[in-house]
Specification:
The complex is a heterodimer. Chain A is α/β, with parallel strands linked by helices. Chain A is built from 16 helices and eleven strands. Chain B starts with a helix and ends with a helix. The chains are: A alpha/beta, B mainly alpha. The interface between A and B is large, with 39 and 38 residues.
Amino acid sequence: MRVTFFLSLLFLALTAGCSDAPQEESVLQQDYASLEKAARGTEVRWHMWGGSAQINQWVDTYVAGEMKRLYDINVVRVPMDAPVFVNKLLTEKAANKNTGTMDLLWINGENFKNSMQAGVLFGPFTDRLPNFAAWYDPQKAAHDFGYPVDGFEAPYGRAQFVFEFDTARTATPPADMAELAEWIKANPGRFTYPQPPDFTGSAFLRQIFYATTGGHEQYMDGINPELYAKNAPQTFAWLSDIKPYLWQEGRTYPKDAAALDTLFARGEIDMGMSYHPAHAQMKILEKTYPDTVRTFVLAEGAIFNTHFTAIPFNAPNKAGAMVLANFLMSPEAQLSKFRPENWGDLHALEVQKLDVAQREAFDAVDLGEATLDAGTLSAVAVPEIPSEYLELLERDWDKFILGH
Amino acid sequence: MRHNVILGLAPLLLPYCALFCAGLTLTLAQSMGLFLPLGPGEATLEYYQALTRDQGLGLSLRLSLFVAFFSAAGSVLGGTVLALALWRMPPGLRRVGVVSKIGLILPHVAVAFLVLLMLSQTGLVSSALFQLGLISTPEEFPNILHTGSGLGMILAFLLKGVPFALLLIGAVLFGFDIRLIQTARMLGAGPLRTFWSVTLPRLLPAMHSAFIILFLYAFGSFDIPFVLGESHPGMLSIRVFDIFFHRDLSQRPQAMAILTVMFVFAAVFAMLYNRFAAYMDAWRRKL
């Protein structure tokens, strides 16, 4: 008696929420004008990383204000880490929940790959968005960490990896990898990097991988296990070589980029790093970093990536999400986002496709003294690696550097 | 009759089953490769086998046990000593004990940050010593948080655990019939003998409960290790978090397998510990 009672409760618990009826997908057949009309007066819940007060404010004021003014759409920003909402989607998919709570996601990289493999995204939808067709190079947004995008993600920003240093403590920063290694050895305990799989730490690992194995070109055609097995030892030899000279002698690493920033701000280490070129400038404006902080890149290259928006398979307001994704790609939104007082995020659109006045507005943006200019950055820009390599690198970092 | 009891308990049992048992069942199923968002969906024990081959996991387990044992034992010891000290005080002064409630009120994560702020090499204590001229550079301050042995975590757990043990043990102590001790003294027992034969046996059940609660909490806790833990070896909970959130989806069963092992360990530990406590009690009585 008791056992059957418990089992039935368990069954009820497991099957709860499995009763939603599948909804019809007519959104992709409509043209953009009718989408805009359908989205009028609705609410769009945008789930995004909420770790930066400045970015949050830009979304809450500029984006929400313009969306209300232009399309009468209420944008609700929901702060949530990407792995968390991907997990939520996986659970909802497993429970057959066809009407979810998230309309638009800010996503890229492994999270996108995981979502695509599990089939929890809606699309392809970017071909329906007029701003994508007008201002973007589809080729440049065709891959996300080597994984084909296939129109399931709309590009809306770019980021590039830079190192940070304080001119008051370090006169000239290293110019290339060899000088970086020398600098680390000459200044024991003053350098470290966030522990992969943290986003920034993992990006540093890929920088080193490119730089120690002869550049990125060889990796662009997808995973090649023999190539990896041949090249990876050089990367881990370089990292093991500098390990004794790291902060805490390389026994421990900061957990994430925020922990690294704190060490750098408090002067426990003399070099920081960020996957966001204007991060140092933002920190100076915030008064966390001294005014003397500057950024630099290494001659071997600086990885850049594109970040995207995507729509969950069970988004309740797909039309509204598409209008918002389209708005975020517009020259106006890209310009506003590019201004360092708003965010300082690199634009994803092609500036040469714009008319002269708009192009001048982009050129006139002053990214601040701590931020490298667009020319310097694009001269060393190298693309992201396919995510299969990334997983191997993170696994082997654990094994060879941490000794797990 | 039994039916009525179950019905009466239903408001409690229902959410319990829905949340706890369903979660547990799903964890177990996923650790064996079932109900996964990806993968073939066939039952397998391969993920448990992978755990036994992973040497880093052994180190993590050792660290988790080490931290859990020392934070629980230290807390019970500290809590008992403080409770006894407080108990001996004149009733007016006993109110000082309220101070200990601060540790109870603060959330674990706040205590973790407190330890981090105070004791890191550029923390408040180090800065104060530096300003006073007692140390010449902040690097001279002992590297408490990065010894590789989880000392920082143990300190944070102690800050939370001592007041908890004090509360639990103090409650028994303050309800203690003083005449028992007076009788023992009148019969000629010294202070040590009185403590050993009269006071301690009455405190032991509370001490055992405090130990087991604190041990299991520290063993599986996430917040303090997240703030104060080190890269190598990481605590088990941090490992699970990393695999679950940061790694490829195909590795998820591994995280679930670790969770299952942790759960089984906690259950078995609680059972064995209770047996052990009962055995010790019986053995003491024989003496």
